[in-house]
Specification:
This protein is an alpha+beta fold. The chain has eleven helices and nine strands. The strands form three sheets. The chain has a five-stranded antiparallel β-sheet. It has a two-stranded antiparallel sheet with strand order 6-9. Helix 5 runs antiparallel to helix 7. The longest helix has 20 residues. The N and C termini lie far apart (about 50 Å).
Length: about 325
């Protein structure tokens, strides 16, 4: 842990492998009060915490990955005489993306914010995948929100930056050694991809499927598969979550890429960053959309099939 005089402030919450608390300390240069989030694990989860610190150490200076302080996991005896393992990380004043969504009506975020957040998440995934890792547990609880202010058009406006956290379940791309019949998937089931559920396949396509679930959740305010009783058997059949019928065409096309049956068809983070959904250049989508007429507005299946055809046509343009 950072060699600082940390003072306990308050408990923040519990994660997969330990609890997180807020600590404050004085800046060395100006004495300003600064904050750090300290993750604490018991002996049973110490291995995961060591693994997380090692992975985070490889992402020093990466703007979309939460930063870890110090040069290793520190061991301390708690007041009950048991050994605890701790790492200190930068503190996200906005909490998790899940906490952030709770502040909005029906937990639905505005469309421009969703597009901006999706861009940030893809930037983070591009960095993670470039280093040869798959996050394996991408969900709103593992995305941190860092509020800031920007001066624009003569006024200060709120701004937010997203960063990935919780790498305790992360694995090397293509790793299969971890797989066991009694633990057939790595992360949180409702955010996992069909191939990772059915036979433990770990690749960047898993993170892109999970990204699609997160983007969908930002639009609906609901967990994926909210429309039925979630069943792993359905996911293994490659069914995708239900889209809102009022979702824009370019958003549907983006999500359909994330939810492609074959992992390779989900492309990669850098390719998805060039989609119209994130560029704001949807002229060609509008041109195609003019040729799509839905006779029955309530026939969502037909509308989705038309969008699939449009996706195929757009892919042929690239």
């Amino acid at each position: 842990m950072v060699a600082l005089d940390l003072e306990y402030e308050r408990y923040l919450g519990k994660g997969s492998f330990g609890s997180v608390s807020l600590f404050k300390y004085k800046g060395r240069r100006d004495g300003e009060t600064l904050y750090a989030a300290v993750k604490t694990s018991d002996d049973k989860n110490a291995k995961s915490l060591h693994k997380e610190f090692q992975i985070l150490s490889e992402f020093k200076g990466c703007s979309r990955i939460v930063q870890c302080y110090g040069n290793g996991v520190k061991e301390r005896f708690n007041n009950k005489g048991y050994v605890e393992y701790k790492i200190a990380m930068e503190y996200a004043a906005g909490g998790s993306l899940s906490n952030f969504m709770d502040r909005f009506k029906d937990r639905k975020l505005p469309d421009p914010m969703i597009r901006d957040f999706t861009r940030m998440l893809l930037e983070g995934l591009a960095t993670i995948h470039k280093h040869g890792y798959v996050h394996c547990d991408l969900k709103p609880e593992n995305i941190l929100v860092f509020p800031s202010s920007v001066y624009k058009n003569g006024a200060w406006r709120s701004s937010y930056e997203l960063k990935f956290s919780d790498f305790g379940l992360s694995k090397r791309d293509g790793d299969t050694k971890w797989w066991h019949p009694r633990q057939p998937f790595a992360g949180t089931p409702i955010y996992m991809s069909p191939e990772s559920i059915s036979h433990g396949e770990i690749g960047k396509g898993l993170d892109l499927w999970s990204l699609g679930c997160v983007v969908l959740e930002m639009y609906t305010g609901k967990r994926p598969w909210w429309h039925n009783n979630y069943d792993l058997e359905d996911l293994m059949k490659c069914y995708e979550p239900l889209f809102p019928r009022d979702l824009s065409c370019d958003a549907k096309l983006f999500l359909m890429t994330c939810f492609a049956v074959e992992p390779d068809e989900r492309k990669d983070a850098l390719t998805l960053l060039r989609q119209s959904f994130l560029r704001g250049d949807d002229n060609k989508f509008k041109k195609l959309q003019m040729n799509v007429k839905i006779e029955n507005p309530d026939d969502f299946t037909l509308q989705l099939e038309k969008c699939r055809q449009m996706l195929s046509e757009i892919r042929s343009m690239c």
